[in-house]
Write a structure and sequence with these properties.
One of its GO terms (biological process) is cellular respiration. By secondary structure, the chain is α/β, with parallel strands linked by helices. It has a single domain, classed as 3-Layer(aba) Sandwich (Rossmann fold), CATH 3.40.50.970. The protein has eleven helices and seven strands. It has a seven-stranded mixed beta sheet with strand order 2-1-3-4-6-5-7, sandwiched between helices.
Length: about 270
């Protein structure tokens, strides 16, 4: 059977959200950033909050995110996006504010920023792209690099004695009373894309309802940094990253109320 008989041209329809610009992204083939950008544009458009939404872009592969989604943006210094988002959300609480960060930006230099922002329950959405490597600067080891994983700075694989354990930042965020919704998703299959979209929508709805910090990790590939084809990278991610970074919701509720939290402390 010819492939044309299976895939019909009339069924190949690409629905482009109006919030996505016409600029061609600079991302490598197979990169997850483009898919997540599309999901963010869809969610913001669907909720009708384009004029109210402010994104904070990072230092890293997504440093030019402001070129691709037609909303207001603010650039932040490396790792400081949660602090910048905190300032914006407090000055103008009617805005819906989100950060978009990679593992080097958020889980390394920005660890203190995200932990304290989430612990305070700042009313922001945090989108965390975890590809277990420093993608933009040459494929060095990141805090989330797996044990044994080969990178530019761990040519023999990440060593526990020398480099310590990979950081499960999402599980840490899930323990904080200010975090309302914490989830880990991926975008490697159509089903995964739909689940990730649902998690992003819930996060933005939480921000609109002033529920506290919502945090969505997206376990992603880095074909260039991993030195794999897009297909091989997806397979490697499924076999190696998902067992250590399991997909699913970690916390779903709202930030702890001050009275309840004080009472709990007194009982303990």
């Amino acid at each position: 059977m010819d492939v044309k008989d299976i895939i019909k041209e009339e069924n190949l329809v690409y629905s482009k959200p109006s919030l996505l610009s016409d600029k061609i992204t600079h991302y490598c083939p197979g990169c997850s950033h483009g898919v997540v950008h599309k999901l963010l544009a869809e969610v913001i458009e669907e909720l009708g909050i384009q004029e109210k939404t402010i994104g904070v872009s990072p230092v890293g592969c997504a440093v030019f995110a402001y070129n691709y989604i037609e909303i207001d943006w603010q650039e932040a210094a490396h790792g400081r996006a949660p602090a910048v988002a905190t300032g914006i959300a407090r000055v103008d609480p009617d805005k819906v504010v989100f950060t978009y960060q990679g593992d080097g930006d958020l889980a390394s230099i920005g660890t203190a920023e995200i932990m304290h922002a989430a612990n305070r329950g700042e009313n922001i959405v945090v989108v965390f792209i975890n590809n277990a490597i420093y993608g933009m600067t040459g494929g060095q080891m990141a805090p989330t690099t797996l044990l044994g994983q080969v990178t530019a700075t761990t040519p023999c694989g990440r060593d526990l004695e020398r480099n310590g354990y990979p950081l499960k930042i999402t599980e840490l965020i899930g323990q904080l009373p200010g975090a309302a919704y914490v989830s880990r998703q991926s975008v490697h299959t159509p089903a995964a894309v739909r689940k990730c979209r649902k998690a992003l929508r819930k996060s933005f709805e939480n921000a609109m309802a002033k529920k506290g910090t919502s945090f969505v990790e997206v376990v992603s590939t880095c074909s260039s940094g991993w030195r794999l084809s897009p297909v091989e990278a997806n397979k490697w991610m499924e076999e190696n990253m998902f067992p250590f970074y399991p997909i699913g919701d970690i916390k779903d509720g709202q930030k702890a109320e001050a009275g309840d939290f004080m009472q709990q402390n007194l009982k303990n």
